[in-house]
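Continuing from the previous page of notes. For each protein in this section, the sequence appears first, followed by its structure tokens. Read the first protein now.
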Amino acid sequence: MPKPIFIIQEHWARAHHFDFRLEKDGVLKSWAVPKGIPDVSGVKRLAIPVEDHPKDYATFEGNLPEGQYGAGRVEIWETGTYETRTWDADRIEIDLHGKKGKIEGSYAMIKTKIGILIFKKKS
């Protein structure tokens, strides 16, 4: 059975951000990360849940036209596979294996009073 995929898309929409997507249950679970996925431990970033996307969106790069939700340029910043350590309502722990070498290692997404925070765990 193949490992599930992850995708990080850089998105120049109304506000520049990164879209973090994890393949699960036949869709891409998705979060907008305004400041990008941290690549070193000790840095926490806000991850805002957005609607699930179809799996075929994993390869999308291009321009979303004006007037359409998310209008602006989208580029694949990183893609790869991941392994799940924990996935429940308050915590996701995963190991990311990026193909471009931009992201690698153990990550956690924790639900807090201020929202969901994503961070790289210490190795």
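Done with the first. The second protein uses the same format. Note its length before scrolling.
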Amino acid sequence: MTQNLELVTTSLAVLTPQEGLRWISNQFPDSVRFSTALGLEDQVITHMIGSEKLDIKIFTLDTGRLFRRAMIFWILHNVTIKLPSTLISLTQLRWKNW
């Protein structure tokens, strides 16, 4: 495990953010997830994932305390960028393999 972590760390250290996301997506196919809280930084990363058409699943964790405008933004976000994002409630986490 430590060797894998060192490989990831040294590989990512010399890559741009876009290259790093691509590298992670290629190294761990069908198993990379990105959790977004819908903040500005997350939107930049989401844009990179969508622009590169990377195999990275995006989700938002619904704690039951999201503001109404955050929920509206999440819906518009999915429609506008055409990059599906899953809304996961805490009860789903118990039953779904993420």
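What the second structure shows: DSSP finds five helices and three strands in the chain. The beta strands are 32-35, 56-62, 85-89. We return to this in next week's lecture.
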